[in-house]
Specification:
Order of helices and strands: HEEHEHEHEHEEEHHEHEHHEHHEEEHH
Distance between the termini: 26 Å
Structural class: alpha/beta
Largest sheet: 9 strands, mixed
Strand order of the largest sheet: 6-5-1-9-10-11-12-13-14
Shape: globular
Number of strands: 14
Number of helices: 14
Length: about 375
């Protein structure tokens, strides 16, 4: 039966691909169709030397949050080495990748987050503009713009993140303002990475409730095991509004443990998560779990499907750090165009496959996705 199925679907798929191609030439999407809110970081990457790593007690291949001893690192890396800047942070990366996949219209993706009134903040605004996303930052003077330094030595990358201003987002000073809320209302798909649960739960709930009440799509990412543990209460306040939940195998295992699912089987975890209470009954929750080089698992109301990832020679893998953000970006790029979930997963796998071949969450000028 399964061998006949693709043949039966083939003509329809060809027609869909033709239609999709024409859609890409004459996009029907309007600007601000996709909305993201999260922790904006200015990614600063540079090839450094061993002395620089040693000075700041950095391991060649690591990811850490900046401590007091790392504060001077961000200015020094700019003065001492040739640096590249990119608009970063998990949610902003995903919106950026979605915009790249779609290409036109520009500013299809809106992004909200908090930055400082400083040089790095100005560079971040410029980089967001270059990525053609409509970023509206809440700017304040208390904390500097959040940064993530990628210290490269050979094939290794040591990441040092200083969240700073990203932690200072205020609902009443930004999200509630009429001109900003108008942009929220324009969107039909919403995406927030779980990291933002540590910053402004009330902002997330306001957006999630709006999506639910208007039968729009609200998407959330588990983002990290500590979100499922330390911020479990915040996470479960938002979960009833979640239409599409993303996560990887490690996050899923931690979530299952915290929710007492009593299973380590990823398909069962996806199924049980899908069945958690939900506010909007018009939409069944979809749970999408990635597993690195293994297949992606997707649970819908009545079934759990698996999707093999695109093969890649390990020699071609440069940096897997942006893979999860790129996966979501690819998925959202088709979701906002109302494509099938299967097509969303294909786009997600394509985007992740492109991004892991490059340093950081960067991509070529144009995608080659059909």
């Amino acid at each position: 039966m399964t061998s006949k199925e693709p043949q039966a679907k083939k003509p329809r798929l060809i027609e869909e691909e033709k239609k999709e191609f024409s859609n890409r030439k004459t996009p029907k999407l309007s600007p601000n169709s996709l909305f993201g809110m999260g922790n904006p970081l200015l990614d600063i990457s540079a090839v450094v030397d061993k002395d620089f790593l040693d000075k700041y007690s950095l391991k060649p291949n690591d990811q850490i949050l900046a401590e007091d001893k790392h504060k001077a690192l961000f200015e020094e890396i700019v003065k001492k080495f040739r640096v590249e800047y990119h608009a970063g942070g998990a949610t902003q990366n995903s919106i950026k990748v979605a915009q790249w996949m779609i290409q036109e219209p520009r500013n299809m993706g809106t992004f909200f987050g908090c930055i400082g009134n400083d040089k790095f903040g100005e560079i971040l605004k410029q980089k967001a503009e270059e990525a053609h996303i409509d970023a509206h930052y809440y700017q304040q003077d208390e904390e500097p713009t959040g940064t993530c330094a990628a210290c490269i030595t050979g094939d290794n990358r040591s990441l040092v993140a200083n969240l700073a201003a990203a932690n200072c987002y205020k609902k009443n000073k930004h999200l509630d303002l009429e001109e900003n809320w108008n942009l929220v209302e324009k969107a039909k798909v919403y995406y927030i990475a779980g990291f933002f649960l540590t910053v402004s739960l009330e902002s997330i709930l306001k957006v999630a409730k709006h999506a639910s009440e208007n039968n729009k799509l609200f998407c959330l990412n588990l983002s990290a095991p500590f979100i499922c543990q330390v911020f479990k209460e915040n996470l479960m306040q938002v979960m009833p509004y979640v239409d599409i939940l993303f996560g990887n195998e490690t996050e899923a295992a931690t979530f299952a443990e915290e929710q007492n699912f009593e299973t380590k089987d990823i398909k069962e975890i996806a199924k049980k998560t899908q069945a958690l209470p939900k506010v909007n009954p018009k939409r069944q929750r979809v749970v999408v779990l990635t597993q690195g080089k293994d297949e992606t698992v997707m649970a819908q109301s009545d079934k759990v499907e698996i999707f093999p990832i695109l093969k890649i020679d390990p020699k071609d893998i440069v940096d897997t750090n942006g893979a999860g953000d790129a996966f979501v970006g690819g998925f959202l790029s088709e979701l906002v165009q109302e494509k099938t979930l299967d097509q969303c997963v294909k786009a997600a796998h394509y985007a992740a496959n492109i991004i892991i071949r490059r340093a950081g969450c960067t991509f070529p000028d144009k995608p080659d996705f059909n």
